[in-house]
Write a structure and sequence with these properties.
The structure is a homodimer. By secondary structure, the first copy, chain A, is α/β, with parallel strands linked by helices. Chain A has eight helices and nine strands. The first copy, chain A, starts with 11 loop residues before the first strand and ends with a helix. In chain A, the strands form two sheets. Chain A has a five-stranded parallel β-sheet with strand order 2-7-1-8-9, with helices on both faces. Chain A has a four-stranded mixed β-sheet with strand order 4-3-6-5. In chain A, helix 1 (23-33) packs across helix 7 (177-190) and helix 5 runs antiparallel to helix 6 (148-161). The longest helix of chain A is centred in the C-terminal third of the chain and has 14 residues, at 148-161. Helix content of chain A is 40%, strand content 18%. Chain A has a domain at 12-41 and 102-207: P-loop containing nucleotide triphosphate hydrolases (Rossmann fold), CATH 3.40.50.300.
Chain lengths: 211, 211
C-alpha cells in the first residue's frame, strides 16, 4: 500500500488471484452494487471466446494495436499469459483517479505485481482464493473452453500463484460470491481509514490556532 | 496489529481518542447495530456523574476494590487519568475472545497504548478524532460537568494526544455519528481479510493433495 496520497483521492483496487478464483464474477457484481467505483477494462490480443462481450470483458485488439500503445508507454502494466498479451490502458485510470474515484483492476498476477511494486499510485491489493484446490479444479473443468492441456497448465499455475498471495494487502476466499463481494466492499471501505492516509488531516488539526 | 492469531478468532478492537472525540457515543451506537460484538466495561474509581449508568458506562469501584484486582494482575490495562483509576478487567475479554467474538475496548490513550504495545492479543486499533479543534472545544464546553479548569486541562491533553494518532491502525474523523459508526463497522469487517491473518489458510491450500 503506497502511503503518500491524500485521503480524498481515488485509489487503485487491484483484484487478482488464480484462474478459477472468480475474479471476473466478483468484480462485476461489485460494480453493480457500487456504481461509483470505476472498472478498468483491459486490452488483450487473445481471441474472443463464446460469452465474451467486447468492451466489457476486454477490449479485443490486434498485436499491432497492442504493441503500438505499449511503445508509447500507454499501459500501466502489461504482461503475456498463455501466448496472448494483456494490458491496462492508462488514460481511463488517470481520468478516474483525478476525479477522486477508486478504480478496480481485475488483472493477472504478473500485471498485479507490476502495479503493486510500481509505487506510482496508491494501491489496495486483494488476492482472491478458491475455498480449496479441489473446488478450483472443478471450476476450471467446468469451463467449456478449456482443453485438457490448457486445464492442467492453468491448474499448475494457480497452485504456484498461491505463493504470491502474501504480497497482497488482503486475502478473500471466494466460496460464496455474495459473501466475497461483501468482503471486498468492506475492504475497500475500511481501508480508506488506514492511518497512513491521514497525514494531511493530522497536520491540519495541529496547525489550527488553539483557543 | 498482531499477526499470529487464527483467522476465525476474536480480536480486540481498541477505540481511543481525546475526550470530546465521541468515543462513548460511537461505540454505544456500534453495539446497537452489531450485537454480536462484545463491549468491555471498564472499572473506575472516579465518582459517578449525572447520566452515568453503573455497569453500562463503567463499573464504579472503590480504590480498595480496584487495587485488589490490579494486585492479582486482573486488568488487561489500567491507568490513572485526572486523579482517578481506569482499568479493563480481563475475564470478560478472555471469555469473549475464546468464544470467537470481537471485543470493543473504548479506552483512554494511556491504556490503549498498553494494549497495542502489549502484543498479548490480536488488536485492531482505531483513533477517533474531532473534525476540528474548534469543534472539540465546543463539545468539551457543552459538558455540564466540566469546570473551566477541567476544560482547559482536557483540551490541552487532547491537543497533545493527536501526536499519538499515528500509532493506531486506523483514524476516523467523527463529524457525524452515523458516518463514524459506519466507518468503524467497515474497519472491523475489512480488517478481517488482512493478509497477515491468512497464514493457516494458505498453508492448508498448499498442503491439499493436488489432483
Amino acid at each position: 500500500m503506497k502511503m503518500s496520497s491524500a485521503a480524498g483521492s481515488g485509489r487503485l483496487i487491484v483484484v487478482s488471484g488464480p484462474s478459477g478464483a472468480g475474479k471476473g464474477t466478483v468484480c462485476k457484481r461489485l460494480i453493480e452494487r457500487r456504481p461509483e467505483i470505476a472498472l478498468s477494462i483491459s486490452w488483450t490480443t487473445r481471441r474472443q471466446r463464446p460469452g465474451d462481450i467486447p468492451g466489457q470483458s476486454y477490449h479485443f485488439k490486434s498485436v499491432e494495436e497492442f504493441d503500438a500503445l505499449a511503445a508509447i508507454g500507454g499501459f500501466l502494466e502489461h504482461a503475456g499469459m498463455y501466448g496472448s498479451q494483456y494490458g491496462t490502458p492508462r488514460p481511463f485510470i488517470d481520468e478516474n483517479l483525478a476525479a477522486g474515484r477508486d478504480v478496480i483492476l481485475e488483472i493477472e498476477s504478473k500485471g498485479a505485481r507490476q502495479v503493486i511494486l510500481g509505487g506510482e499510485y496508491e494501491v489496495v491489493s486483494v488476492f482472491l482464493l478458491p475455498p480449496s484446490m479441489e473446488e478450483l479444479k472443478n471450476r476450471l473443468k467446468g469451463r467449456s473452453s478449456e482443453s485438457e492441456e490448457s486445464f492442467s497448465r492453468r491448474f499448475q499455475s494457480a497452485y504456484s500463484e498461491i505463493d504470491f498471495a502474501k504480497e497482497y494487502d488482503y486475502i478473500i476466499v471466494n466460496s460464496d460470491v455474495d459473501q466475497a463481494v461483501r468482503a471486498l466492499e468492506s475492504v475497500i471501505d475500511g481501508s480508506r481509514f488506514r492511518t497512513e492516509r491521514a497525514g494531511e488531516l493530522l497536520k491540519k488539526l495541529k496547525e489550527e490556532p488553539t483557543p
